[in-house]
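Blackboard transcription, Thursday session:
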Amino acid sequence: MTIIDRSSTGTDVTLAGVGTPAYDREQRVGFFTDTSVCIGCKACEVACKEWNDVPADGLEFLGRSYDNTGRLSADTWRHVAFVEQPVATPETQAVSGMRWLMSSDVCKHCTSAACLEVCPTGALFRTEFETVVVQQDICNGCGYCVSACPFGVIDQRKGDGRVWKCTLCYDRLRGGQTPACAQACPTQSIQFGPLEQLRERAATRVDALHQQGVADARLYGEDPADGVGGFGAFFLLLDRPEVYGLPPDPVSTTRDLPGMWRMAGAAALGMLGLAAGSLLEGGRRA
Amino acid sequence: MPRAERRMVPDVTPMSYYGQPVLKAPTWKWPIAGYLFTGGLAAGTSLVGASARIRRDRRLASAASAATLCALGASSAFLIEDLGRPSRFHHMLRVVKVTSPMSVGTWIFSLFSALAGASAAAEVGERAGVPERVARPAAAVAQVGSALVAPALATYTAVLVSDTAVPAWHDARRQLPWLFAGSATASGGAMGVVLSAALAPCGGGAFAAGPRRMAVAGALVEVGADEAMHRRLRSINTGDVAKPSVDSAYATGQPRRLARAARACTVGGAAAVALAGRRDRPRTRLIAGAGALSVLSGAALQRFAIFHAGRASAADPVYTVGPQRLRLVPPAGQP
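(Written on the board underneath:)
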């Protein structure tokens, strides 16, 4: 097993660090989570909870790796996945060691966000930064977004009834600040900035990793042509997305909605015809 | 530079992170499955009521009107009860969004309820002294109006559940509207049979011919669409040995039991409704009435089967990841 060089991210230190973030109010911003430099410290989880006042969601011992958070939820808006797997040598198939994969998951802030599209109250909206946020004074807890999200990100908070998820620190963005998780990340695994800039930086980084021999490095969610129109928060992964608990080819359910309405319209007309044919046949009642 | 980290344990890439589901479990509880049934029942029954009104069978029209209102009352209770914040149910009326089947459905439900309510109010008004020439046309117009909205009420719920990331619902999106339409038609016809059986004394003539035809025709569409749905779901492979297709969500446990019971009730009930005999006799009423109750149970069980199969398909990452993986990398030997 080889050790990935986690020392060089190929990024501009000042950009993701403390100081004035380089973005305008009119730009689409997002996250580039480079999991090749994630050390699994969970500073992002803690910073997110602290800043956003997210309530505690129990103290579980999952007993499978250095991850006792488990998953994103209404009360966990950053989750550090910690994959621990035995590794075999290709020739002998014998287990020759272990590998660790760490990745900080978050809401993807999809370009075509199914959660937002199906929301019947307008509680979910797109901000001026093109992020997706829930207005808590509007949400009535219908739960439609929960079933619509192809990533299983948004969820209902128990005892509260409304749905909660990452806001990409909307309040901090409005104040010209970097989101709490990116600010707290000690290795620049979580990079924040204008999306266009992040995409360029990610392309450079994945090329560099390929040259270093990390052939499994790949970008996930950077492509605007994918099933959700590209993520506002995309990733560099070191294995298939499903290994990290991410769907390999997510598609926004609302892409099929026009066809569904057409089919329902046809079925509705069919129902009217069927009922009329059954009930009105034979003239006046016997 | 070191060589790449290649091929870990060869091609047993797990379906997910420590076997956890990729999707969140739907927050919807049994009242939503209940509503799928009562909404369809209200729609189907209003069609029976409107046709009775057109045929000047005022007793059946009134009874159907009352039954529609009961089904609507149950529907409202189910829908509001299931909200995380029931006191905010009126937030549904803030916007009109065609991208949200729930928003569209809220407006369909509201329009339907207003018309069904107006029809019933006009009838009550007539009894309370409103002149007949005002009350009767008002009741008729409102009842026929509600019947024209009814098919939308019966089918939008299919779009509602299909427009999710839940595999067993989304992948059935082309069949579910027909299934729901058939099921609602069967329910309405069956309710018409039950009401007819309860209303008039036995006096020869044909017994509830229209509602019976409707119940049987609806049941046939329901069963046909159900078959088509399962064939469609069977065609979506997961690449898993134990759960080879999305239809496997129906293969075990509660979804399987519910689906089997639904089929038995629908087919048996429709057969009884069809074969009970034409003439209005006590025996005919008993057999057709019992068959109609069985059709109603079948429709309800069918909705619960679909509801629980959806939950099962969301809970297992195989149904989420499997088809997506095959979509990206088709197995060898396939185009």
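Lecturer's comment: The radius of gyration of chain B is 23 Å.
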